[in-house]
Amino acid sequence: MQSARKAEQAGLESSGLGLRQPIRNRADIAAIEALGLEAAVPVATTHALLERSALLHEDRPAILYLPRGRLDDTPVQVTFGQLLDQVNRAANAFRRLGVERTDAVALLMPTCPETLVALFGAQAAGRVCPINYMLSAEHIAELIDHAGAAVLVAIGPDPDFPVWDKLADIRTRSRRLRHVVTVDAPATPDCLDFATLLDGESANLSFPLDLRRDDIAACYHTGGTTGLPKLVQHSHGNEVHVSWFAGMAYDIGPQDVVLNGFPLFHVAGAFVLAGAAIAAGACTLIPSRLGMRNKDFVRDYWRIVERFRVTLLSGGPTFVSTLMTRPQDGCDISQVKALFGGGSPVPVELANGFEARFGIPIRAIYGMTEASGMISLVPRHAERRPGSSGLPLPFCEVGVFAPGLDGRPDPASRLPPGEVGMLALRGANISPGYTNPALTEAARLPGGWLVTGDTGRIDADAQIYVMGRSKDVIIRGGHNIDPLVIEEALLHHPDIELCAAVGQPDPYSGELPVAFVKMKPDRPFDMDAILKAAKPHIPEPAAIPKALYLLEEIPLTTTGKVFKPRLRELAAEYALARQIAELLPPDTAMELSCAEEMGQRRVTIGLRDAIHAPVIAAHMERFAITYRLVIA
Length: 632
Hints:
Strand 18 and strand 19 (409-414) form a beta hairpin. The strands form nine sheets. Strands 18, 19, 20, 22, 23 and 24 form a six-stranded antiparallel beta sheet that branches. Strands 4-3-5-6-7 form a five-stranded parallel beta sheet. The N and C termini lie far apart (73 Å). The protein folds into three domains: 6-457, Rossmann fold (3-Layer(aba) Sandwich), CATH 3.40.50.12780; 473-562, GMP Synthetase, Chain A, domain 3 (2-Layer Sandwich), CATH 3.30.300.30; 569-631, Histidine-containing Protein, Chain: A, CATH 3.30.1340. The protein has 632 residues and is of the alpha/beta class. It is globular and about 75 Å long. The longest helix is centred in the last third of the chain and has 20 residues, at 564-583.
């Protein structure tokens, strides 16, 4: 088989399909688009993407895995040739378990080589549905059934990953699940061992790979509650598109090492980084199952970067803030080319500070699951403009629209460059829709546009400026306030490590801006002093926070973004508890909690005496918040 691969490699290189040029500017993107999609992206499926790299870079490392995420780890190495062999074995095993083209394999896996093998193998045999292992058993079972998965690949007992103890409950709740395949688990009668399955299969596919660009490859969970899950479908073409062009904009190749600590159940980890590295023939360094959450890895970060000659870093604003607290300790990091940000923009002050301290340029990325993880980015060789999320990927169109009467973008009211409006997308990286047709219809506009839920503008040079999520905008008396303005102002303060601004319910203005802050170690919290320092950097008085709340830890998503729904819950709890307490007699017993689902806040208020219910009801009617009174 190796000699056959060598012959194919020579043919691929002589055809020119082994060559990739960097994307630097709009002219490069225009030149790519002039070729046409099929000529610009010569592979149509994720398996073909991996097969191409195995042909070109068979003996080069595709993965370096640090089992403990420590500097002194002995890395596990998987070459491109070995990765393709293992993926083929996994695909054969899944087919033997009954997975056909429209069936799914669900994954409850951390970030490790086996996850990539299972992911790509599932996409060759059928479809894959990576699931956040932190979800409840009920929710996981719902997603398994909704995706049509009869096979589940799950990590075995591990104190850092709450999966093993959920499996029995998941089996009971799921109507579709037939087989559970485990990684690093004790032998049990009702579980199959992943390594044993692979050992029993051929390294060549045992079935014809009749895949096309538009065939569904994956279902990614992006929200929704039990009973109405939001599963985004990706075609093979969607995922290949992001992998192919992200690597070209990063300008990485076979000599590069990409540090990937994102969870692989998230499209950013799976394709914005891992897929881009595979397309480029670069090596992916995985710092243990915990990834960026590994404290030993964070402690040894710069030494690990030095030892493994990492050339491309990644991380959102929260991780960049963490790195600012880590001493470089004389490590040689001169080989690092750039740090590519997460899906939320890195505040200007933080980006400037990071670049000045470490000499590593930060390049922004704008993405969402519905766009297969990437919409735009600042190419590595381009200039970083404050607030810009860069240029759209080739064959991806971003439009700015005025809101219609229904509150959604009006496709008949496209706005000119420079004007702020609602962002919508269409193109080769955009999902064909959700598994729930009703959700797809709600997210689509005439002309094939996808509603992003973001506000922003596009300048005359086609640079995209994302102002924020529509639901994150703070609306004070009908006036829209961009939370990023507040956050960047607060981050000027040298003692603040991380912050996030949200709207807090107010009976007169609807919402008032407040902010949550995390201080750097051993730095004091003085709200008045912080606000005094921030005011000169906030362009309008209405945006000055009415309160700052100190948190030991800001809640984050699994990809390191600030989890604003939880902060909005806390802000509502603080404000409403105070407001209602002022309406009641002193020492009146009351409990209040807030939950946010699908962008809607729901407040529960517990009382011991029903006599106070009318007063509370009258107050709550002043808000567009669903509430219920519980009389104990």
